[in-house]
Structure formats: structure tokens, C-alpha cells
Design goal:
By secondary structure, the protein is α+β, with helices and mostly antiparallel strands. The protein has twelve helices and six strands. Keywords: Cytoplasm, Elongation factor, Protein biosynthesis.
């Protein structure tokens, strides 16, 4: 398979590895992007976790939460430019989408788009989106949503950077007072900042651990070709534990107090409130993650406009 410059560029943005290393990795894996990432990791040339790619698409993430903290939704709506993402009309529309998502009974975006628009039932959500595109004058997309109905638990939200990152956190506690609510907000901020993948290690599959172990083993062997396998095996136990601590929320260092883990912080909150506080679930959206914004050559765009 021919290796193109755009493939090399994409791999470099995903891993942070050098241009020539990326080119070699693609050549070695016949252009398979995921295998190329693993190749670079095994050589110690890429970060432990594959990045989603350059965050390029514009838009915002927002949340809607009930007064009793029992029901919440989070949505991402994309726009073409940051200028529109800051537009009040656009933001009001996204707020309305989040409010609709908090009341919906569907779970996939296709069904959501076919629902009646709550503010004008003569239209569907998709038709209202088209109307907003016509008014605002820029293409937009309701990309994704998630709703949490907490039942006996409670849910809080946190929006960072004017809508760049949004988080919902569901917690179980017998005393959801101001202290517990603040703790849940602090956890949401932690999730926004550090981006864990799981709440606890119990959520991590054996397949994932086996896969990571193989990569770390290959990496350690490349770095220490003269060491026997039994020494390599001992080395990767420590590396794997370190990696899993970064992936799991409760094992992470608490950002507001570097002397504590998140688990220890929650223990201190429990003593203050008189009731354990347990994270049951979280949702984290980052605007545009995994999307590539269409690149335009400014000179070509000007020439095209002048040629009209």
C-alpha cells in the first residue's frame, strides 16, 4: 500500500512521534493506522494511549440537569467556525437540544433527529436543525447525546472552557448535601482535566489488560534487549500498574491535592458527610474529538471568491 503524506501527518498527530518514524511505522504495517500506532508504542516512540487525533471541529458541548439532580443530558453540536460557536443564537439552540435530550426516550442520534421538536411540534429535531442552519448561515450538526436517569443516585455536570469539554458524573450517597455536591463537581473537574477512561479497575476487560501487557513487553524488550524474560516480566508489572492508575478515576492523583488519590479524597468527603460517596458512572465529551476539520487554502479561497 502506498504511504501518503496525509497518512504520515495523521499518525504523527495521533502519536506525537517523528515524521520519519511515522513513515517507517506505516511502511512496516502496510498502512494500517492502528497497527502503526502499536508499532510506535512498542518502539517507545508514542504515548501510552492513542490520541483521538487533532481536535479541529468547532462547536460546543453543553448539559441540562434537573433541579433535583436526578436526570441530566449532555450534547455536542458542531459548527464550521469558532465564530458561530460563540454566537448567542447557536448557543440558545444547543441549550434547547440539551433540554430535549433530557426528556427523550430514544438512545441513538438517528431516532433523536426524527423526534418532534419540543418547542414547535410541527417540525422534527432534524427540520429545526435545518432551519437554524438557514438562519445562522453555516452548516451545523447534532453529533451525539447521552441521558442519565440516576434513580436513587444523583448526577452533576461541569462545563469547561465555554463548552469545549462537558462532563456528567453519577454518584451514589445517602446524604447528598452541599458538601457531597461540591465533591461530585470536583470529580467532574478532575474528569475534564485528566480524562480517565474508567471509574475503577473492575471495569477494565481482561482482553485490554492482555493487549497492553503485550505492547509494554515489546517496548521493554526493545529498550533492554539483553535482559532475560523473567526480569522483563517484573519490569512490565510496574509499568502496567502505572498506566492503569492513569486510566482509572479513583486511582488518579487528585488534582486539587497532590497528596491524595481520588479514592482517598472521597473517603475524606464520606467522613464529613457521614455517608459513603461512590462514583457509579461518568460521561465526558470534548468538542470535535475524533473529527478532522476541512482544511482550506486561504489563497485559493480568496481566488475562488474573486473569480465568482
Amino acid at each position: 500500500m502506498a504511504i501518503t503524506a496525509s497518512m504520515v501527518k495523521e499518525l504523527r498527530e495521533m502519536t506525537g512521534a517523528g515524521m520519519m518514524d511515522c513513515k517507517k511505522a506505516l511502511a512496516e504495517t502496510d498502512g494500517n493506522m492502528e497497527k502503526a500506532v502499536e508499532f510506535l508504542r512498542e518502539k517507545g516512540l508514542a504515548a501510552a494511549e492513542k490520541k483521538a487525533g487533532r481536535i479541529a471541529a468547532e462547536g460546543i458541548v453543553t448539559a441540562n440537569i434537573s433541579d433535583d439532580n436526578k436526570v441530566a443530558s449532555i450534547v455536542e453540536v458542531n459548527s464550521e467556525t469558532d465564530f458561530v460557536a460563540k454566537n448567542e443564537k447557536f448557543r440558545s439552540f444547543v441549550d434547547a437540544v440539551a433540554a430535549q435530550a433530557a426528556k427523550t426516550t430514544v438512545t441513538d442520534i438517528e431516532a433523536f433527529l426524527e423526534e418532534k421538536w419540543a418547542l414547535d411540534t410541527s417540525k422534527t429535531v432534524k427540520e429545526e436543525l435545518s432551519s437554524q442552519i438557514a438562519v445562522i448561515g453555516e452548516n451545523m450538526n447534532i453529533r451525539r447525546f447521552e441521558k442519565i436517569e440516576a434513580g436513587d443516585d444523583y448526577v452533576v455536570s461541569y462545563i469547561h472552557g465555554g463548552g469545549r469539554i462537558g462532563v456528567l458524573v453519577q454518584v451514589e450517597t445517602g446524604n447528598f448535601n452541599e458538601v457531597a455536591m461540591e465533591a461530585a463537581k470536583n470529580l467532574a473537574m478532575q474528569i475534564a482535566a485528566i480524562n480517565p477512561k474508567y471509574v475503577t479497575r473492575d471495569e477494565i476487560s481482561e482482553e485490554f489488560i492482555a493487549h497492553e501487557t503485550e505492547i509494554l513487553k515489546a517496548q521493554a524488550k526493545n529498550e533492554n534487549p539483553d535482559k532475560p524474560d523473567n526480569i522483563i516480566d517484573k519490569m512490565i508489572v510496574g509499568r502496567l500498574n502505572k498506566e492503569l492508575k492513569e486510566f482509572c478515576l479513583v486511582d488518579q492523583v487528585y488534582v486539587k491535592d497532590g497528596d491524595l488519590t481520588v479514592a482517598k479524597y472521597l473517603e475524606s468527603v464520606a467522613k464529613e458527610t457521614g455517608s459513603p460517596i461512590v462514583v457509579k458512572k461518568f460521561v465526558r465529551y470534548e468538542t470535535g474529538e475524533g473529527l478532522e476539520k476541512k482544511e482550506e487554502n486561504f489563497a485559493e479561497e480568496v481566488a475562488r471568491q474573486l473569480g465568482k
